[in-house]
Amino acid sequence: MSDFDDINTRGLVLVGCGRMGGAMLKGWLARGLEPGAVTVIDPRLAPEWQDKGLRVNAELPENPAVLVLAVKPQMMAEALGEVPVLIDTLVVSVAAGTTIATFQNSFPTAPIVRVMPNTPAAIGKGISAMIGNDKTSAAHLDLAETLMRAVGRVVRLDSEDQMDAVTGLSGSGPAYVFHMIEAMAKAGEAQGLSADLALELARMTVAGAGALAIDADEDPAVLRQNVTSPGGTTAAGLSVLMDADAGLPPLMARTVAAATERGRELGKGNA
Ligand SMILES: NC(=O)C1=CN([C@@H]2O[C@H](COP(=O)(O)OP(=O)(O)OC[C@H]3O[C@@H](n4cnc5c(N)ncnc54)[C@H](OP(=O)(O)O)[C@@H]3O)[C@@H](O)[C@H]2O)C=CC1
Ligand SMILES: O=C(O)[C@@H]1CCC=N1
To answer: Taking 90 as the threshold, does the pLDDT of residue 84 lie above it?
Structure first.
């Protein structure tokens, strides 16, 4: 008995199997989704997916349990045009910006869950936020949560209005952290370390700090203080990083605001 029993019987359709769709599919297959139950619709599917026993660009099952939409928001209208009428299928979208109302135009009677995952889902360490429309029952939300829990943690939102900010924080957030690794490595090089050594130190520092932030009982602020000896090296570094005008807080605020605003624009159909 697996969490995926109903899906394995009725099928799951994944429209768009790129970076995010592929990351989720990897996690689902690792946790009991049967390849033969998955119909992948993607005109230019990456070669790594060709010999996995998936139904690739095949006719859709008549009444799949779930339809997952993972194409770019700009391609969504075209992708929706290719999906036939659904009978009793849960529609799950992971697209940034695209609102539930947009999907309701295509599927007026369907339960629809809008989800914002992130790419650490590929290794089961994603975080997804989700919210359903008024056609979603508790069972539909549980099904969507089961899918997303297979690739990481899940939070449920109170309002769809929160989704663009979620996208600007955790949907896009892995990119900010990867850039921080790049920036830390470059900064280490500037202090005389070799490129390889600096990258290894930066990568493991971010990975270790992230793991500690999850495992420890203390807040990140306390963990930060634990590193910071009075008059020591960290205090010297943080005096630059935590500067109220030119440090990370105002920069991160602008970063997340820009990403959030872009989500809102995508929701209005601005390419
Ligand atoms: N990447 C991320 O970190 C995250 C992405 N998302 C959301 O996930 C969605 C997908 O993003 P991402 O995976 O990065 O994008 P990708 O471009 O990597 O993947 C989208 C895939 O869909 C394919 N495609 C395009 N048109 C169609 C169509 N009509 N029918 C079926 N497949 C189609 C694309 O093919 P081709 O390349 O040939 O166009 C591509 O393989 C977006 O809506 C994004 O907002 C959400 C959270 C995080
Ligand atoms: O950049 C994007 O638009 C997508 C949504 C969140 C992460 N990637």
So the answer is: no
Q: ipTM exceeding 0.85?
A: yes
Reference 62, options 27, 32, 89; nearest CA is 89
The whole-number pLDDT of residue 1 equals 60
Domains in the chain and their CATH numbers? Answer: 5-165 (3.40.50.720), 173-267 (1.10.3730.10)
Ligand 2 contact via 96 beta carbon (within 6 Å): yes
Q: Which residue type, as a one-letter code, is found at position 193? A: L
Cα–Cα distance between 241 and 85 in angstroms, integer? 53
Taken in order 171, 174, 179, 184, the sign of the CA dihedral is: positive
At 123-149, the pLDDT tens digits run 999 999 999 999 999 999 999 999 999
- The chain-wide mean pLDDT, for the chain, equals 95
- Does 268 show up as a binding residue in the annotation? no
Nearest atom of ligand 1 to the alpha carbon of 175: 3
